[in-house]
Amino acid sequence: MLRAKFILYYAVLTASIFVSSCNKNVEEAPQDPNLVKNAILETMQEWYYWNDQLPTVVNIDSYGSNEELLYNLMYLQYDRWSYLTTKDDFEKAFTGQNAGHGVGFGLNASNELFISFVYKESPAGQDGWKRGWQILEINGQPISSYKTNGGYNFDLGENRAGISNSFTFKLPDGSTTTRTSIKDNYQANSVLHKEIIEQRDKKIGYWVYNSFKATPNLSPTRSVEVEETLKYFEEGSINELIIDLRYNGGGSVDVAEQIMNALVPAAANGKLMYTNDFNPVKESLNDSYNFERTNNLTLDKLVVITSRGSASSSELLINCLKPYMEVTLVGEQTYGKPVGSFPLSSFNNVLDQNNVELVPITFAIANATGQAAYYDGFPADILAADDPSVNWGNQEDERLSAAISYLLYGSLGTTSRTKPFKSNWQMIDGFSGLQQEFPVY
User: Going from the N-terminus, what domains does the chain have, and what CATH number goes with each?
Assistant: First the structure.
C-alpha cells in the first residue's frame, strides 16, 4: 500500500453531549443507522482521489451496508482497491501480525497447485511445510472441485485462531502425506529466502521478499528484517542483486523507501525519488521526496522477478529506481497500481468512534521522470514461467535461472527453458481489500 508521508493530524471535538447516569428515567437516543454511511460519504468527498467522479446525489437509505455504499462510490474505471476494515486489523496487517495457516498457493505451467511460500512462525511453518509440495486435496476434496469461473475458491473459513483444514500433499520424493492445520495467530516474516550466488567471478545476491511489512513498535517506521538482509548482502560484497517480488502485493511505503535508499546508486543521493498528487481539495498536501542513500552496496545491475502478484509498493520500488539504474524485470507483467491510500478514521470522529477504518485511494505517485499512470502494470523484459514445484534458490526455477543467465551473459543462456507464459490465476486474485495487499491463506 502506498501511504502519504505527511503527519496525520487528529480532528478535535468542538462539542460533547453528556447523558446523566444518575437520572434513571433518561435514555440515550438510538444512534442514527446512517451515521457511519454519512461519514463515509463525507470523507470520500473530502479525500478521494477521484472525488470529481463521485455521484452528485447519493441516497444513503438505499444501501444495506457500509461496503455496498463504498463500492457504489468507487470510480471503477480505475479503482480496484478502496476498502473498509477496522483500525486493529489495519495495524496488524502492516506489521505482519497474522492469523491463519500461513501459507501461499501457486500454479505451475501445467495448472497443478503447489505451496508457493510458508511463513516460518505460522502453523504451516511450524509443521514443516515447504514450497514445492503439491496440493492434491483440501478437506478430502480434489483441487479441481474448488475451481470457479474466475479461478479458485478454497473455502478455508475465517482467518482466526481455531479454524482447521486438512491438506493432502505430494512431496518432492513422490510420497504423499495428509496434514491437519489449525489456524492460529503468528508473526509473519517478509524475507522468505536470501543467499549469495557465486558464478563466473560474480557475487549475485538473491533476495525473496514477500511484503513490505514494518517491524512492530519501531520508530521511525522500518523493518529489522530488511536491515539484517541488507547487512548480509553488504558483508558478502555482492555487486549485483536479484530481488524476487513475484508474490509481493505491497505494504508500507516507509519500508519500500528503506530498501530503495539502500539500493540506489550513490550518484542519486539527494535526487528526486517520487512526487505525490492529491485531489484539488487537498492539493496543498502535494509533495516530493528525495533519496537519502544508506548502506554501502554498489550494484552494477538490479533484476526484479515479477508477476501479476507484484503490486503497489513493489511497483513503486521499480518505478522510482528505474530513472537512476538499470532495472530488468523477469517473469511476467506486474499488477498495475500507481495510486495509494492511507487510513482516514483519524480525520473523522464518527469513523473513529465506530472502529471503521476507511482506506480509499487518496493520491497518485510519479517517479523522477513523471511516469505515473501504469494501470496496466510494468511488462517483463524477459518472460519466464513461475514454477512453485521447486524450492527457493533451486536454479531449476525458470525465473531465477533466467535472472542469473541475464546477469552472467547479458541475455538468456543457450540452455534456458524460459518461454512466454501468462498465468490464468494467481493468489492475489482470490483476495480483496486489505487482504489483497498481503495475500496468504
Answer: 102-187 (2.30.42.10), 191-340+362-424 (3.90.226.10)
